[in-house]
Amino acid sequence: MPHRLAARLQVKHLRLIAAITDQRQLSLAAAALAITQPAASRMLAEIEGLTGTPLFERHPRGMTLTTVGEGLARHARNILDEVAEAADEVEKLRLGHGGVVQIGAVTGAAVGYVVPAIRRLKSVAPEVELHVQVSTSDDLIKGLMSMHHDMVLGRLPPGARLGDFNVQRALGERVRIVTNAANPFAGRAEVSRGELSGSEWVMQGPGAPIRQAIDEAFLDLAVAAPRNVTNTASLLVTLALLREREVVTPVSQEVASLLTGTHSNLVELTIREDIRVAPYSLVTLKTRRLSPAAARCRDLLSEVLRQE
Fold first, then answer.
1. 37-51 and 11-23 helices, crossing angle to 10°
2. How many domains, in total, are found in the chain?
3. Are 164 and 298 contained in the same domain?
């Protein structure tokens, strides 16, 4: 009997039970559901046939629930609430107003592009759950290929099959040098690259685009690349080391603005010769169909890139 009832009881039956419970009259319940009274009467008889017992007692002034009716009405209300919530969630997912989005980005792109895109997305879809991983381009592209990221703002590694990706390139970025305000070079109107070769550097490890840009910048001047180097991709470690006056660090424009704007003890040095790093790109897999929320986020990131 329980299995038979569960298999044959339908949402329309639950709606009728809830409507009669609220309205206390069959005619009013039928009107609330936009069906005729005879149709409502037949449906109630069908439900009571399935349960094998009356659900309502009929009185001159209306209908009241029996003990069995009270139990079924309580569950009917809970189930209808769950159905309504499910329908609402499906609609939000369909429109990109909900769901989960996984973004991977290198540090500069995370600050300069991902954050503005997140603010725009949250203003129209606050229930979207966003995950942002900041790492090196190599790790991020691996994450994209293994479906851990919906999209990546980074650089495609050498040898990557371009045909596998959708790529929107950003402009190349100028490297900025940030240091402690007590650094001897901090008061200078202009500093040459060569003068910084003997400084204590904190930067990403060999092979990272910004590290390559620094090494090539010194090579262009026929000056030895910095040898006093702490290798890290962690912004927190970099901040801790920048407490020392001798330390300098190469970062993107977006990160330089963030560091000097939020830490009064940090300044940006004016470098006489520009140091530029290869541009990063907004990358997605051609074979992966994005969820509505992820597609919406990708479009916002694309828009931010076009506005730079």
1. 110
2. 3
3. yes
